[in-house]
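Request: Mind sharing a record?
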Amino acid sequence: MKKLSTIGLMLIILFTSACGSNEVVSEKETLKIGYLPITHAAPLYFEKEFASTYMDGVEIELVKFGSWIDLMDALNTGRIDGASVLIELAMKAKEKGVDLKAVALGHKDGNAAIVAPEIESVTDLKGETVAIPHTLSSQNILLHDMLKEGDMTYNDINVVEMTPPEMPSALAAGTISSYIVAEPFGALGVTLNQGKVLYQSEDLWPNSLCCALVLRNDVIKHNREVAQQLVTGYVKAGEKAEKLDEDAYDVHKKYLSVDEQALDLSLEWISYDDLRLEKEDYDVLRESLLEMGLSEGPPSYEAFVDNSLIDQVKVE
């Protein structure tokens, strides 16, 4: 009986030890990634929804923000590990000493200049109010380029900063005559018959940069395998978002409060393939920031962009 009791006790200890070991192995690394509810962040939505397909041992916690200011505060202070964010804001943070790295684009295109129905050309905007989401934004650079098309400057218009959801209603109310913003709010203005497209981003700035997936560099340095899984899953998720199948629409609708007609149009204007950030495109952005006086020393491509993770991803 003593022998049997001893054997039983040993088995219990071994079983308990094995269970504890399994619990440790099954624990997942969690990355907190910030976003605003726009179509520009779609690869994050798809990565989150299909995490089991793309990642093993890594979990994404998506943290929703209502403004770029709040998101950047969380990113700069380390409360989140990364974000899908306006690249200009991340560049400014890097310029100020925050150690961030851009590891992929968020999307391509998808920034339309929407105007009131009576506006036929840029020159019609003289004396009118135009809304952008932030001074440090690709939308502001697109506005700068648009004004050039009409041989105009900022002195010819009134520029206001406005949150994206407010813009379609402001256009409808007549408080603004134009806006340039992330999707789906451009498409929403069109489908509500409140405005029309004067320019698409590619008309003004070919290969324009807008949102990027940015990580705190300590995440890459100290947990590279986790960062690699995140970027690999992100690129694969972008490929899935690009297919525009039934799953794609379901995912978008889960994260975006937008009707189907506006979503359809929005997704016609944007793409999620080939999310590598190229030097020649970045240098155009950097020169624009200098020209417009928005930055005194924007970080170089080599200092800010890290393609070592996305270059490991096999694109189908």
Observations:
- DSSP finds 15 helices and twelve strands in the chain.
- Residues 109 and 270 are 5 Å apart (CA to CA).
- The longest helix spans residues 2-26.
